[in-house]
Amino acid sequence: MSIKSWLNLVSAITRLPGIGPKMAERLALYLLRHPGETDRFLNVLNTAREKLAYCPQCGDFVETDGSPALCHRCQDPDRGNEQICVVEEVGDLQALERSRAFHGKYHVLGGVLSALDGVGPEDLRINVLIKRVKEQSVREVILATNPTAEGETTATYLAEILRPMGVSVTRLAYGLPSGSAIQYADEFTLAQAVEGRRHFN
Amino acid sequence: MSIKSWLNLVSAITRLPGIGPKMAERLALYLLRHPGETDRFLNVLNTAREKLAYCPQCGDFVETDGSPALCHRCQDPDRGNEQICVVEEVGDLQALERSRAFHGKYHVLGGVLSALDGVGPEDLRINVLIKRVKEQSVREVILATNPTAEGETTATYLAEILRPMGVSVTRLAYGLPSGSAIQYADEFTLAQAVEGRRHFN
Fold first, then answer.
1. Could you say which of B16, B23, B32 has the minimum Cβ distance to residue A18?
2. Fewer CB within 10 Å, N- or C-terminus of chain B?
3. In this structure, are residues B80 and B104 in contact, taking their beta carbons and an 8 Å threshold?
4. Which residues contact A31 (CB under 8 A, 6 or more apart)?
5. Predicted ipTM beyond 0.95
6. What does the alpha-carbon distance between residue B107 and residue B86 come to, in Å, rounded to a whole number?
7. Which residues, in sequence order, are bridge partners of residue A61?
8. Within B121-196, where are the H helices?
């Protein structure tokens, strides 16, 4: 193929996360074959890029028309400042909100520590978290990073910083996911489910 | 979440083919968090939308700076006009080219007949194909639509139109894919492999 702008488009789409070369070709074709849909997509993307900012406190998205403001959760007087739930990304926050199990404040790190990807503590929103714990009446920090090697490393790093500050540092429970089958659970999950077993009430 | 432009972006991405809601959230986050990469992607997409046109004969992409021209394959004197290989989409053409098994001309339909999606013969490049067969010295039309229900319907429809025109109408062989295992082949593929069996040379 000597069609440069087609090849460039496919390779640009392949660089997006989780998209392989076949999927990229399919998307490229769709974007070129549906000009109306593509115009709408580009409008929505541009609006989102213009309007969305980050809450300067928790790091969640906030819709803005100029000056940065706290998000609605950080401004909500019904959510106490005693508990901060630390998550990697906005999607984690949304999933926890859907569970309705947590009613405190959040803190979005914006990623995890990763030697491989060159992400160090200065790349995450850790200083803002320390400031919040120091200046607000925080009693508990729940580390809700993902149960992955990098999530673990990040949680361990944060715990070592936060514990000396006199705050209770907790972690989400590990174990069998609801609705799963023991037969098909991986060994690490099973080991953690045994280790974390509770009294049967 | 009350963040409208975020929700709009995620739902616009979900409308793209093959992308579910989780993947859409991941892509939305990526596009917002990597402004430099996103700028580059938008540039490449805009260039492709501007520069790419369709070859008026075969329907493949052709890079243009104004007036529409035949693509390099349609202009290639080493490719005879005797054989036309009819494919659904540009990606099929590219896959066949990679196989180096066909050296004639192509014809991209731009889809398949689909009652479900409301795609009729007038939505595909069928009239141009008929014109080519009528006006050029075509001896064989190879129907290389996909081995799906819709691909079959489209091939049957085309064969009924083309056969009376005195042209030989053929179909790609069905059977076991190279490197596959009989044990795991589906029953239709196996039935077709038996039906289409050849003498062992």
1. B23
2. C
3. yes
4. A9, A38, A41, B16, B45, B48, B49
5. no
6. 5
7. A54
8. 126-135, 149-162, 187-195
d(C-alpha A4, C-alpha B125), whole Å: 24
Beta bridge partners of A171: A143
Smallest CA–CA distance, residue A78 to chain B, in Å, is 16
| Phi, psi torsion values for A69, nearest 5 degrees | -130, 160
Residue of B16, B40, B74, B96 to mutate, testing the A interface (most A Cβ within 10 Å of its Cβ): B16
Model pTM greater than 0.80?
no
Nearest residue to A29 (alpha-carbon basis) of B154, B95, B48, B55: B48
Tens of pLDDT, residue by residue over A133-191, are 999 989 999 998 888 889 989 999 999 999 999 999 998 888 878 777 777 778 778 77
Closest CA to A88 of A73, A106, A110: A110
Look-up of token digits 């963040």: B3
Q: Which of B15, B33, B37, B44 to mutate to test the interface with A (most CBs of A within 10 A)?
A: B44
Q: How far apart are CA B57 and CA A42, in angstroms?
A: 31
